[in-house]
Amino acid sequence: MAVRVQSDPFDLGAEANAFVAAQAGGMGAIVTFTGVVRDVAGGLQAMEIEHYPGMTERALHKIEDEARDRWQLGDVLIVHRHGRMQADEMIMMVATAARHRADAFEAAQFLMDYLKSRAPFWKKEHTGQGADWVAARDEDEDALKRW
Amino acid sequence: MTIDILYFAWVRERIGLPRETVETQAATVAQLVEELRAREDRYEVAFADLSALRVAVDQDLAEFDAPLDGVREVAFFPPMTGG
Predict the structure, then answer these.
(1) Which domain of life is it from (chain A) (predicted)?
(2) With respect to CATH, is domain A2-146 assigned 3.40.50.2000?
């Protein structure tokens, strides 16, 4: 298992290959999810992500522990960037390994749902009009209720 | 007791500090917030609507009625927007 919070970009292909190669035998399903910077309104100059060093890693490990209580998982990887990024850059990824795909898919979705509203990251959008903190969405909070 | 207080995102911007150390007798997070609000306008502005804020006590999410006994670090921030 690994949780990494970094400002540098990551290589999705290299991460995914290394993740698959590191699995013990019998892991028949690997799911990866990647989050990408969206230019929602047009004119995005940069996306800035702030986080709470220390608590971020702690919160991500807790979310992973929770996922492990619910599904039969092999490794779990969470990589999340902070700092400034441009539209279409990769912000974060999760990977899950399991014997069967249902566990891998569901655990990846669970990790994403919790990561969005329970890990201390905040997004700020910079445009030609200035900079604004992205507001949390009710749908993201509601998404937790299904688990 | 001495507590480190951390601010993130727009809370940090409104207060104008990322962190500070305070000496307080507050028994709960809510009492600490009241002490801060009484200090200066910028705190009053940042803490005007507690429903728009989240709090972490020693790096775990908590409620505003959480006790401060033995606590070293309290953080205030808006709802999180990761992913």
Answers:
(1) Bacteria
(2) no
